[in-house]
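Batch manifest, entry 17 of 40.
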Amino acid sequence: MIKIKRAYEKPSKDDGYRILVDRLWPRGVSKSKAGIDSWLKEIAPSNELRKWFSHDVEKWNEFKKRYHMELKNQRKTLQKIKEIEKQNGTITLVYAASDDRHNNAVFLLDELKKL
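Output type: structure tokens
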């Protein structure tokens, strides 16, 4: 099972193995309290795409297309996430964005379900 959760929410046992999927560490979250087991920066959108999107909901559909193209070069990392899921049962993709419907973790979750 793969879930998503904001980095600002308290970690719980139900999260299983927690993977930060953002390129930047979440502001104001200490590493000791974040409960992150792995930080996979390389699976996050490129800096150029992240800056272009800037969490503008009107750019969401185009963001998904562009991020999908970037993920084509990250097949090994996607497989690594699926392997972690097999080993741990439950994993949680952790993200910092305040919009819980329009962020890279939401799209990444959908892509992982297709594998």
